[in-house]
Batch of 4 targets.
Target 1
Amino acid sequence: MFKKILIANRGEIACRVAATARRMGIQTVAVYSDADAQAPHVRACDEAVHIGPADPKDSYLQWERILAAAEKTGAQAIHPGYGFLSENAAFAKACEAVGVTFIGPSPAAIEAMGLKAQSKRLMAAAGVPLVPGYHGDNQDPGYLKSQADAIGYPVLVKASAGGGGKGMRIVSSSDAFLDALQACKREALNSFANDDVLIEKYVQRPRHIEIQVFGDTQGNLVHLFERDCSVQRRHQKVLEESPAPGLTPEMREAMGQAALAAARAVHYVGAGTVEFIVEQPANGEMDFFFMEMNTRLQVEHPVTEAITGIDLVEWQLCVANGESLPCDQSDIRMHGHAIEARICAENPQQQFLPATGTVMRLALPACAQFTVAPIRWDSGVTQGDRISPHYDSMIAKLIVHGETRSQALALMDQALSETHIVGLHHNVHFLRALVNGPSFKTADLDTSLIERDAAHLFAANRLPVHWWAAGALVALIASEQSVVKGHPWLAADGWQPMGGATRHLHVTAPTDLQVAFWVPSEPGCLRFQLDALHEVSWVPLAQDSWRITVDGVQQTLRLVPCRSGVTVFMREGSVDVTIQDPLNGAFGVDAVAGGLTAPMPGKVVALRVAVGDRVAAGDVLAVMEAMKMEHTILAPGAGVVTDVFFQLGEQVAEGDALLQLESES
Ligand code: MV4
């Protein structure tokens, strides 16, 4: 076996490969860009080599530097992960040329599957079912129209060089064909500098089902069943599962055999995936057609690992080392049901726009104690990391494995409810709505599921106000006690030795409301007035986790203070509560830390204090401007300004310390 391998990737897949290498006693070398100097994948490997600036084209796609790093460290093989160089035949050849093993298929197999029309002709010759269509060289518009007429409408015109849904046009009648063809060719020329098209019968209500295959250098080939990846948005997978719901054993066998025929046709070695589009007629048998073969390990491979118990990266390493597959088809069994959710930095409320920012808080689902944890968290992001715009927006993959699909669904819901992320937009709530939504729950799957369930998926989550208000109160009181180190006489919070003082709190989000509450007469409990009078008591657990009782019902809440309030996480979901405390001005992290940081990148347009000034809670300290909006920085409590770290007119970054305030004592 290899003594040392280089991992030519970053993020979760680099960490994933490193984990198996470590388990096998193989040393690992990471490569990293400027943006990734402190990244988890660097720490996950034994050695690391810097390969250039943040932009992937200057680092992770620079094969000369990667090959130089392999030579310098003595790595005998290179694992390309997915994306980047994983399906680059020229890179695979370059590895061979310098005597480093490329952990993947042959350059010829990568090339053969890389071109759409060509791979489809190859598959047709190998007897793999294709969508009825025309994949030939004759691009004469009149000829293409006659082909479309023969196939029958609706047809799909696809750019031969396209992918990921780009350059596709549905044509519903013969009359509309020539105009649509022209438009498709124009788009293809602009996007791919090649205006060849192919024509296919349009498959309605399609499902995306793919088969995992594995080959070795001895010519053995096996498949590891299927994954259903129908839940997508903008051609990005969101949920993947195995087995595919409703797939009959006969169809599974037929698809497995078709995938093996596809792999055999290109003498496939290593891990690969054969993608099929599956037609679901309103009544009648499902039909499947070859779409493309991905000549790499895929993002969603963990669901296959869960149901087969096979470590696919271990198999990749053994096969690349020239060993034959450890078992044959009849030894490969599936057990239970696995689902993967991709947790991404993005805003589902704004067309899933990728989000950037710092992961201020990241709490993982609790490991199920007293059992073998059926939950897997694959991630290359840790708390405090920045999600930069240079790379993809995936924060983690969450994989659950149950005996049945409904058990897996329940586990996924539970694990997502315990996944707490603060600091940037993410899709955790959206994923939860998705797995609990009408279509996914009943396995009514096709590629337009997200659009169909939109009303359910994008609805604002309604959480019980007395619970999140209670969480906000507990966070507020905890922060005040930490500022004054628990001394009640020094707190400017209206506390009276006899108890009974009333405070009013203005909560502005998610709903505008006034909360009246009575200052605690004994520690750890108080009453508050909303629609009715409520009673809350609390006990701190670890870190920001609290056991809270509201009106006699107890649950664990996570309370994460942020700039202007607190994020309250509970079983049903989370809310960002913005608190305006008339007594105390701003509330949040700043108040807890005693230092004051910039809430966003911007310019300091007013500075109202100097070192030595005495300020009261709520006094204006400075004013910042960003995106044409002014933000006022208030004193979180009474104190003396001991340091000012910036000047008027200065540009500051998000999170920069602005000034230091010391509470008076
Ligand atoms: C299709 C199709 C319907 N009929 N081909 C989208 C991306 C590209 N890889 C192939 N795609 C499709 N090809 C025929 N003949 C519908 C899609 C399609 C799709 C396929 C798989 C997963 C998600 C999809 C979302 C929209 C359209």
Target 2
Amino acid sequence: MNIDVILGLQWGDEGKGKIVDVLTPDYDIVTRFQGGPNAGHTLEFQGKKYILRSIPSGIFQGGKINIIGNGVVLDPALFKAEVEALEASGHILTEQLYISRKAHLILPTHRLLDLAYETQKGSGKIGTTGKGIGPAYTDKTGRNGLRIGDIENNFELKYSKAIARHKELLKQMSFEADLESLEKEWMEGIECLRRFRFIDSEHFINKELKNGKKILAEGAQGTMLDIDFGSYPFVTSSNTVCAGACTGLGAAPSKIGNVYGIFKAYCTRVGSGPFPTELNDETGQKIRDLGCEYGSVTGRPRRCGWIDLVALRYAIMINGVTHLIMTKSDVLDTFDTIKVCIAYQIQGKEILDFPFEIDDSVKPVYVELPGWKMNMTKMQSESEFPQKFNDYLSFLEEKLGVKIRIVSVGPDREETIERR
Ligand code: GDP
Ligand code: IMO
Ligand code: MG
């Protein structure tokens, strides 16, 4: 059996959580492979809404095993809050959720360092989620990190050494903060973690593949936030692309099966960094209002703009996307016309390949398509799609070279339409 991967093709928040939940019944195991609580994956069903940060989005489809893979960075305090919120709503997770011993811990000081580095950058700040993601991955690659498996062995000593190092760094930056209360919360999180099963997930996953089990790997963030291929330096600190599923799970490239790439019918971004199709006008505000485009983790208004096929083609190439999934098309239901960026103009030249750097000289080249002007949220099958919507899909497929297999027409699990 193979591992199918599902990941975001834009700057995050494409609707990964919703789609993972919809696809989970076809799988035995769902697993996160990178990122941490910077993610906010929203699921809606039976009139309820849930936001997952570190726990995979397969957790609500009864009886499936969910794994937090080795590529993830985990904050015990936020994990505890997430677990408690789910338990309060009647979802007991201990039998269903396993955690890789090789996943790294986000220490309370990582959050402070995140804040300190952002403050230091001033107007050039990344606009991070402030969850300590960058500093935790920095410690991982700098070989100073603490892992879940360390909790089982001589933990206090390892922890105090790491914290002492961080305190010194914070002192050098003249950054003062109340570490005590953060540490207390964090240690309670460690106790919560101890209730769960720690596994050598690379062995577990490969054995389960041999046993014929079907595995779905859930990406966080999006391709344009990838540490290597995103709009550097305005990116996150992990590989959000398909290759990240190999390193973040211990899965050989030959084990990767379908690659589901998710994109919105338009485009959003949170935090700083280039966004060629951004709309700082009333159309952008209309998309924000209709799409409820406010961060699920930080509540920050998301920047909104038209769909960008230059960036999408690039993301499809890097990930080897085999199936496309388009979400939030309903947000455009009332628009008279819809713009699609098909190329960039840079110093008078039209370019189709995503460039090394994007500055203010990059201008989107648009094609304007007629809107379908019809409420699609209650539609049940593709046979009900208006012709103009089908034309929009065909236009995208022709430009992207991959078929759009699923269209999401609302936030609820049920508001999902498969295309043959
Ligand atoms: P993720 O991080 O990729 O899982 O996405 P988020 O949960 O951060 O953001 C997507 C938002 O759009 C959430 O509020 C979802 O409930 C919502 N959503 C997902 N699919 C659709 C859709 O097709 N239509 C609408 N209107 N909302 C959607
Ligand atoms: P999901 O999984 C959207 C953005 C931040 C910031 C940059 C770096 O819900 O799609 P970080 O805290 O990772 O160091 O921030 O990345 N970012 C996201 N934007 N969705 C996310 O996750 C994001 N996770 C990080 O806004 O610009
Ligand atoms: Mg999100």
Target 3
Amino acid sequence: MKILVTGGTGYIGSHTVLSLQEAAHEVVVIDNLVNSSEESMRRVAELSGTAPEFHNVDLVNEAAVERVFAAAGVDAVIHFAGLKAVGESVREPLSYYYNNLVGTLNLVRAMERHDVRSIVFSSSATVYGEHNAVPYVEKMEIGANNPYGRTKEQIEDILSDIGTADDRWNIALLRYFNPVGTHPSGRIGEDPQGIPNNLVPFIAQVAVGRREKLMVLGGDYDTPDGTCLRDYIHVVDLAEGHVAALNHVADHAGVFRWNLGSGKGSSVLEVLRSFEKAVGRPIPHEITARRAGDLPAFWADATSALADLGWSTTKTVDQMCEDHWRWQENNPNGYAG
Ligand code: WQD
């Protein structure tokens, strides 16, 4: 099929573009490059042998989105594009609501106009909020506790309402947990602009000498080693999960929700130790105060993705750290070289 991937130059997007090409799909990418680099497309082309068609387009520009749909003739959409930093969303909620919601509405309206009604949406485990018991299950009542998470929740509701009103729509809502790692080639990876919010890219930048030390944000949680537990999954496993979801919605009308996670939690210190094993030396770190809003522990119940899609994670935290380090060591400044 010919697949439009919004946000396809980003970390998860670029890995998914590669997985789609490896599954013999033709790919068209829309991205405004606000938090990514077009270099990722050249690297993907190097790995797959085929350059994805790329349009430097912002989804909030409705006319530009229409021009891509009018010319491309796509069969389905995977929608990653959106602002995604929790802390930033608390400081700049209007920017998050405008970019994430208006961008999605422009995309879905263009799909409707062009009779494209299969979509895989990149949602987040953050929609489960603070009130749900662990492990998270798809049928639970969601309720995010930050503007970023609320945009994901509202987009889920928009797509779910569209699918309920019109049974020609095939919709997959994928709730990610904590994607880490990179393609084993070390040629595509995670390249956050500015100071990384997330744990593993920060550790990687300390290991390569760009940051002085890792601050372990809280060591007094009620967990085995006092640090938070999260469900880390390899980004290549995550990309394969998107291909599996796309194949499912290609011939199943309706609205589907799947957690993409490993089903187990790893602590901050366990991940740090694993990264030190990959690097072969200790990584400077200090246990400091908790970060506001962090939950002590959560992970996925991933049984429905296995049952419905035949998908489950395959890679270990050690493999995630080995791959992430290979990327960072070979690309100390990310795509900037
Ligand atoms: C993981 C653990 C931190 C940085 C976020 C979003 C979520 C999703 C994934 C988009 C926590 C600790 C972190 C650091 C640390 N993003 N940490 N030092 O918060 O689980 O999830 O990213 O969909 O929506 O909420 O991931 O990597 O930020 O933190 O100790 O420098 O690492 O306290 O316990 P998180 P994270």
Target 4
Amino acid sequence: MSTSSVALSGVEQSAGLRSAIRRQLFIGGRFVDAGDGATLTCVNPHDNSPIVDVAMAGKADVDKAVAAAQAAFPAWSRLAASERGRILLRVADRIEANLEELARLEALDTGHPLRDARALDVPRTAMTFRYFGGMADKLEGSVVPVDVGFLNYLLREPLGVVGQVVPWNFPVMFTSWKLGPALAAGNCVVMKPAEITPLTSLKIAELMAEAGVPDGVVNMVPGLGAVAGQYIAEHPGIGKIAFTGSTATGRRIVQASAGNLKKVQLELGGKGANIVFDDADLSAAINGSAYAIFHNQGQACIAGSRLILHERIADEFLERFTRLARSIRLGNPLDADTEMGPLTSAQHRDRVLGYVSIAREEGGQVVLGGKPPDNAALSRGFYIEPTVVRARSYRDRIAQEEVFGPFVTVLTFSSDEEALRIANGTEYGLGGGLWTRDVARAHRFAREMHSGTIWINTYKRVHAASPFGGFGLSGYGRDMGFEAMHEYTQVKSVWINVDAATPPWYRR
Ligand code: NAD
């Protein structure tokens, strides 16, 4: 394992970002402390050092945020759609102007390698706000051909105040995936970032205010899931909740939303099938499959976490794949050379290591990794080596449950039918893909695989214009693309009697 690190401690590194760090809730256009003064310490996953204490919202703070959003809604929803769009375009510009600061903040708070935050996370965040800025005035109603003499038209109206609860794995990007369509469609938002990674979300709130988003339109309330998150899901003043996170929490949200029958959108876990056929371009498949699982330390709902290999190429593939995985540079995320950082929290690192024990108990073979790296410079951080495990069966826990770490489960097959059975053999269905030169097979699998996204001869590509979401236990509803605008609107059907010759119902 090659590793790298820089000499600065986490505290010193965060000092370089002091001016970018916001430590308060953002409600009604102002940064404020939590009503009860509660805070939580953000920790640098590279060395477990404290970065800053950030305010944690309680129920009273969520109430204030909802009230601010309700007050802002009439003016925001009646603003010309093109003007809402223009403001979102300015948000994208502000994000690009602050790219380096945002990328460093994300790397510090989450453990994302800086090179990924610079090249992917922050540019994609700007791109997504820009896409929805352009979308704001493209949302049209329609005219329905009903009975002669009547005009029936459909309006797409915003929902009002929307709650958005997101996880810690891609915090900056999720601000744009969630806020972009909600705001473009004319809603106001109360967003809760994950308690352990609030820093870039708070910075985005500040940039949005600078870009001209009116007070109260966006409120950012970091807080504990069981307190602020649960209360947002229950809140009678909120008309919809959009959630990204685990399937277990998604179920709780559905239950909590029942009080006022909120509209619910769920982007949940995954166990991505990544199938490599014996006719594939192996070099491309090996590189793409490593990216599919090891990018962001495997902390991705769409990670290619089940590597399903044709038995004819399995040994050669695994030999070359593990050689590549062994060469991935682990190190301090703020070092520009680092290719893989630490996991985002100690608790999550321990959970992932727990799956190494489960693998051994199930008779799996740990081919690579399965432990923290032997490097004193990384010993205080939450690092795990790239881990490759051969499972005995696709029904094993390591082939069924989401590990959400740099942990790939390897399975083999001998026929197309078997590959499809394995690929569809979990209750998840978020992202999956295949590597083959056979065009007919590629299309057949695209049709047959039970998954919201399919990649062919690539993996883990996302784009603001392409709808994203799951089948089965991976949730329902779609982020991004035109679909997302529909998620944040409700249809109103308007009937007008133009010149209908209808007889009176009651002849008197
Ligand atoms: P999590 O469900 O524990 O937490 C996600 C968010 O929900 C956090 O903000 C948390 O504070 C909040 N939360 C926790 N309990 C809550 C409750 N009772 N009510 C309301 N909110 C509550 O998930 P996590 O461990 O932070 O994130 C990892 C999970 O997210 C993985 O399962 C991953 O697959 C999933 N994920 C899905 C997508 C997708 O688009 N489908 C994207 C990224 C991550």
